[in-house]
Design brief:
With 300 residues, the protein is an alpha/beta fold. 53% of the residues lie in helices and 13% in strands. The strands form two sheets. The protein has a six-stranded parallel sheet, sandwiched between helices. A three-stranded mixed sheet has the order 7-8-9.
């Protein structure tokens, strides 16, 4: 059953994430009006044609005037300056969230930016969904379906404002909402999101180097290589932003990952068949368990 949660929702940054959220919100009737705040007129035309927004503007004051929900869906580096530009124009009772992939540094800066009693609520979000594709033309109504969304708990969070935000993410398809600290968020995403991207980039660049000397190599690259390295196709500027903003946590897990690779190398060099088999079986069992849980959620 469709339920109106907001009167005017503003999506600042109508790309893959913001555009998909707009599509899902409009499908579910969650807002009376969905407005896109963008940098180019072309994006307004594309977003309206896709059905992601009802209207769009390049003006911050015009966009957020009378808004009761503002979603900052652009790159992490754009969140702080955009929020700063919005501050004089946000009315009392407005709920503001961001979709950034890193939190500790960002929320530290935001805490220093907000007045003691801002009159609106800011609660950071991170739905664990996405694609290597980018832009509003890649937006999908089902992008958030079955995903987990983290809401970030800080000392300044109004816990009562969590309810409408939880309702938003559940309504667009998130299967679970998890409230975490900024430190937990950055530590966990470093391991399961940022490290895999860094590894995929390293693997692709290794193959690029090898193929430069052995021209027949890429002719045999097939689904295994493509599946393993798909995420390396993410926008370089966006991932530079993410990796630098969470570099301490990522470097920590990179060190541990290199130790895992060295351990595997040792098993191979020393022909430690039992140890190698145990290493493979441990990963296999864990991965099969993940697939079982995933399939169970689909059936449920």
């Amino acid at each position: 059953m469709k339920k109106l949660l907001f009167s005017k929702a503003v999506i600042a940054g109508v790309g893959l994430m913001g555009g998909s959220l707009g599509l899902a919100m409009k499908k579910q009737g969650l807002a009376r009006e969905v407005v896109g705040l963008v940098r180019r007129v072309k994006t307004i035309r594309e977003a309206k044609a896709r059905g992601c927004i009802d209207s769009g503007t390049l003006s911050v004051p015009r966009a957020v005037r009378d808004a009761d929900l503002v979603i900052l869906a652009g790159p992490v580096s754009s969140t702080l300056p955009l929020l700063k530009a919005m501050l004089p124009h946000l009315h009392a009772g407005c709920l503001v969230t961001d979709l950034g992939s890193t939190k500790v540094k960002l929320l530290g800066h935001i805490a220093g930016l907000l007045p003691p009693k801002p009159g609106f609520d800011f609660i950071s979000s991170h739905p664990m969904a996405g694609s290597e594709k980018a832009g509003v033309l890649a937006a999908r109504q089902d992008l958030y379906l079955g995903s987990l969304c983290m809401l970030i708990k800080t000392s300044g969070v109004n816990m009562a404002a969590l309810a409408p935000l939880k309702a938003l993410w559940r309504s667009v398809g998130c299967r679970k909402i998890k409230v975490v600290t900024p430190q937990e968020h950055d530590r966990w995403t470093a391991a399961v999101s940022h490290l895999p991207h860094a590894v995929a980039v390293g693997l692709v660049n290794l193959i690029v180097d090898l193929a430069a000397r052995d021209t027949g190599l890429m002719e045999i690259a097939s689904t295994g290589f493509l599946d393993t390295t798909r995420i390396a196709g993410g926008l370089p500027a966006m991932w530079q932003d993410i990796l630098l903003n969470n570099r301490e946590e990522i470097c920590t897990v990179l060190v541990r990952f290199k130790k895992k690779l060295s351990r595997l190398e040792g098993f191979l060099r020393n022909r430690e068949e039992t140890s190698l088999r145990q290493e493979l079986e441990r990963a296999y069992a864990f991965r099969q368990g993940m697939e079982g849980k995933k399939n169970g959620r689909k059936k449920g």
